């Protein structure tokens, strides 16, 4: 949610904690994101005593059946089309610059 031309400007926006949300975001979604981006670790969703349950139990996810997802009873909303050996979703890189000793 932080955009700027220079990395230092992005950093400044992150540290300020000020985020502008699109008008089509619901109040529940904004609340969830604000709690996930909380700078104070003692107040950030996922870092509190309830752990991930603070996120999963948030009202924005009220229609989600987490047990069904865990049990793989929910169909994926998008299944990408691909062919054998298709690597089009991966970035290109130059193998010469890999430090193979780190493997």
Automatic annotation (TrEMBL):
GO MF annotations, alphabetized: ATP binding; cAMP-dependent protein kinase activity
Keyword annotations: ATP-binding, Kinase, Nucleotide-binding, Serine/threonine-protein kinase, Transferase
Query: InterPro entries from the entry?
Result: AGC-kinase_C, Kinase-like_dom_sf
The highest taxon in the source lineage is Eukaryota
A single GO cellular-component term on record: cAMP-dependent protein kinase complex
Where do the AGC-kinase C-terminal domain residues begin and end?
62-103
Q: What is this protein called?
A: cAMP-dependent kinase catalytic subunit alpha
């Amino acid at each position: 949610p932080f955009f700027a031309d220079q990395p230092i400007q992005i950093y400044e926006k992150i540290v300020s904690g000020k985020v502008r949300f699109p008008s089509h975001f619901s109040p529940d979604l904004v609340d969830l994101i604000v709690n996930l981006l909380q700078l104070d670790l003692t107040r950030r969703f996922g870092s509190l005593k309830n752990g991930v349950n603070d996120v999963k139990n948030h009202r924005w996810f009220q229609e989600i059946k987490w047990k069904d997802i865990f049990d793989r009873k929910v169909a994926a909303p998008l299944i990408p089309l691909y062919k054998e050996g298709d690597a089009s979703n991966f970035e290109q890189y130059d193998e010469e610059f890999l430090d193979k000793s780190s493997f």
